[in-house]
């Protein structure tokens, strides 16, 4: 009682003055590689403090580089003393100061930049150390003791192993010895995928003209082209398309036979060059399904950018030259705009989520607006195709925005791509095989963090997919964790899946032979990634609503490092649903047991379903 | 044939059917008469006026689509009856028994615009001249927007219907003109269903005693105001600390009395109080206040914290202003407007300030919860009349702390306790009578529902009721039938219910309560009110709670005897200054970031696994406070996700729930335990999942021919992307093109 009255005396907010307790809630609930994240409690703390970290998770092929006492300056809970362990794959930090132990598990691949913070003469607590920027929306700060250049070794080692390619070292994917029961490299086979779509047929044929990457070095070896176009035609067309990326089939509508073609911009240039072969080629495409009066060409760029590209030899299909085509600009901005937009987003969510003007700050990043434009473009492509018209999609080189548009529209049109395997095929086909420059866009193992070629185009695509899963929560076989795992391993360099810019380089590096595929891991434990709400519905076209009213920030991905941001409520619903599923199974089991114990008696009675009274009677009959 | 009241019958020979033979016409008329021309009228409902050949249309880009029909105005609603027969399968899946799809209760009309010569003008009641606009846009309080064209109607009819609608929906009227009065005189009372419900109405001493007993409150039920002898604003019965005498209550006519709301298991409790009139001399009111606070602390044996809402929450006018801005975002006239407003969606939302108000209320509630839960301090909420934001906060606090209020009957009881018995001026705040000057209209109750919705969407398994239930409840505010929302106090209702003429010898009127859901919805539709995700209270939980409670009491009893007399002086000394400020009208403005202040509460709460039967806290960071999509976007065709939306998951859960129910029954049948305790409700079966819109159950699938929404006016608001946008595409860098 007395304590309460004292409180009263302190004035209204008196009892706010309690000592700050360290929150353990700071451990992110979702860790990028959560399979290795078991902070053991059985080991005694004292012994651990003296020794190098004992329970560092270790992948086969992972090697310990160094251990060090360090202070992690957690943006949410302040400085925490602990130990860091660096391997050739990860940075692992553990602190026993708080209970339960706090861990950080960061694959070196996510590191984009390492800076020294403060100098030997810096004053103030924890002012001397390392500042690490990550590609996955977080920064890490570590403080070290100032005496004895304690920072030099760790900085150099970290720098070396975080950017192996800049130091003539191998990416971890090539060192990994991981084994999985499934082989993810077998998920995608171009010919089988075309066959699934019903190709080739009398209008479309497979060509091996690019078998040695001689037609186009950023395309795959197997291409689907119009039956009427000869390989010679293809070569001629390739001369008129940027980087020789000629229009080829991505997808064919099973009923109306309309196709999605992808390519790069035509090399029109300032002078407005024309190419008869290209014009004829597009007309062959238009004719192929016999329904397309005007072929629609979707140019992903804003009109002005397409015009500006003429100056560098590019451009777009002019009206005069392509009379049977209509050109639609989709107004999607370039990789630089997207990069800056995500950077702005990071600024408002990390470390602190913008409080007072959250919505207008979010708007000013334009991130969701870009998402809206990409989705809106894909909706138009899908809609056109559904109504029986073939389309051609390109941007400048046809490996960023084009990949987004074709893959998203295919996701809307074809329910196969919404399955676990189907989505892997889609990524493997539209992104990996058709030469999205993963290496340049992500900068795997490369120290040039300011490289203008870097851009979160693939992240944006996955975000669009996530938006679709939000709008159609029962239409996708995979869950949010699946998408997050893909994004985490986009950076991690643990798997070969997203390494390098195109197939020709991958062949050279023998990626399939020397590395493990991400899909190997996912498919070996795929139960984790299944959406319990999934309802199989074939042949249904999904049209998401590309309105700000429905687009939302992917909080559980972009703000996942903030312990105060809730893990999405969807989880609660999902969890509850799983509980109910378990309950159902319990009942089913019980019923089965009852059936077994009942069956001999029911069998010799009659075939009619037992009425309650009959059943009562039965049970009471002593055996 | 057309028995539509005035003006219906005479004009049945429109010239355009002249090429139809008389026989054909007769048949046609007969059919029409039989089929749909009859408006569906409730008991006591009469048609004031009507007009034929009115076109109801929707604006899509440049094209208009519409149907012809009859527009009527009755003493209950504005109704449109389509000439086209409504086939059975297109009937809305979720029908309100009182209203059809195109009915607008008069009290649901928000704004009416007249369009003449392409100019849209707001119609203000009382200023209508003989001229009538060619088009009528009616915006409803439930966010529907209707477009009617009067161009093809007879001039006389058009004029009449326009004037009728404006007169009956936009002009001040007396309470007796509200439809409930006509309805109740003729409708047979459905008393039986009300009695059987579990909702406590808090009209009797018993209900209060039950509530006191349930929460183990240490207070007394007072009958000082029986027959409203002290105050017409207060209910006849209420609960106050033991030390508050009838004289105390009489002293300032109930002002300055701490009314008990709810008791925490630790012994502290939540109270609310109306400010004392400011004219009182310092000494008297101060002394009085001391005694009242003393009364609170004495019974509860714990300190008390005073929360003055006027210093920390927006005023009612701001509430109304903000909501007006907010709702405007959803009253969309055309597809073009939808996409244009899409560009600035987030900043428009922010500018309205509505979400911020919701957040502030929730924050304040968390703060109060913190006092009760962590500091075991009683809280006294103070507001001028303690019947507006006070109701919002006290109800929210109870929902967060007590799982009982998250059940259907608990929630309804809570609204009865805090809002109806609590004397919230529903009539004035909803402005049903259109008396502009008299009182401040403000969506206070809606604000409460909004806050509950936030909790519900964040912690779905903790609530027995669904989002649909809340939406329907928010709609019911605007149906002028329910005693719940029609009056300013219980006294107000009781006097209104008395028969109009003493000599008429009638029994008092019997208004239905909104909780009598069967009046609006059949069982099937009502099944959508329950939340299939709800985690029910485990049975042993009750016992557990009891023991913990007892333990607590034991702990309390010790310090009680030891420390009671000593520290009192000090605490009052310090608090008197505060009190003076509060009760004498001087407002102390202090702003302490509540998220900071409640940080520890959140942290300790988050550390534990979430118990749906335990304390529930809202997440209040920017991304967590959302727009109540079902309520606000359900009528906007552009925002519909065909075959999608969160309703699809809800549906899966419903299916699973019914499967489990069947299995459970089967198991019970087989194991011969026939005492089934069916907790699951009937499952709603409607159109297949894939054919539904995300606004299910509120819009029928047929409403729009489906085509994907492609944003128009995509031209960027991305003006500020700077030089980057003009920068050459990445692809052209490096090795030269060509």
UniProtKB/TrEMBL annotation, chain A:
Biased composition (Low complexity): 31-42
SMART domains: GRAM, PTPc_motif
Location of the Tyrosine specific protein phosphatases domain: 365-411
E.C. designation(s): 3.1.3.95
Leading EC class: hydrolase
Cellular compartments annotated: Cell membrane; Cell projection, Filopodium; Cell projection, Ruffle; Cytoplasm, Myofibril, Sarcomere
Main location: membrane
Domain named Myotubularin phosphatase: residues: 184-558
InterPro entries: GRAM (IPR004182), Myotubularin (IPR030564), Myotubularin-like_Pase_dom (IPR010569), PH-like_dom_sf (IPR011993), Prot-tyrosine_phosphatase-like (IPR029021), Tyr_Pase_AS (IPR016130), Tyr_Pase_cat (IPR003595), Tyr_Pase_dom (IPR000387)
Catalytic activity of the protein: 1,2-dihexadecanoyl-sn-glycero-3-phospho-(1D-myo-inositol-3,5-bisphosphate) + H2O = 1,2-dihexadecanoyl-sn-glycero-3-phospho-(1D-myo-inositol-5-phosphate) + phosphate; a 1,2-diacyl-sn-glycero-3-phospho-(1D-myo-inositol-3,5-bisphosphate) + H2O = a 1,2-diacyl-sn-glycero-3-phospho-(1D-myo-inositol-5-phosphate) + phosphate; a 1,2-diacyl-sn-glycero-3-phospho-(1D-myo-inositol-3-phosphate) + H2O = a 1,2-diacyl-sn-glycero-3-phospho-(1D-myo-inositol) + phosphate; 1,2-dioctanoyl-sn-glycero-3-phospho-(1-D-myo-inositol-3-phosphate) + H2O = 1,2-dioctanoyl-sn-glycero-3-phospho-(1D-myo-inositol) + phosphate
Keyword terms, alphabetized: Cell membrane, Cell projection, Cytoplasm, Endosome, Hydrolase, Lipid metabolism, Membrane, Protein phosphatase
Family: Belongs to the protein-tyrosine phosphatase family. Non-receptor class myotubularin subfamily.
Name of the protein described by the UniProt record: Myotubularin
TrEMBL record, chain B:
Family: Belongs to the protein-tyrosine phosphatase family. Non-receptor class myotubularin subfamily.
Chief subcellular location: cytoplasm
Organism: Huso huso
Protein name in UniProt: Myotubularin-related protein 12
Cell location: Cytoplasm, Myofibril, Sarcomere; Sarcoplasmic reticulum
InterPro entries, per the entry: MTMR12-like_C, Myotubularin, Myotubularin-like_Pase_dom, PH-like_dom_sf, Prot-tyrosine_phosphatase-like
Record's keyword annotation contains rRNA processing: no
Domain Myotubularin phosphatase: 202-632
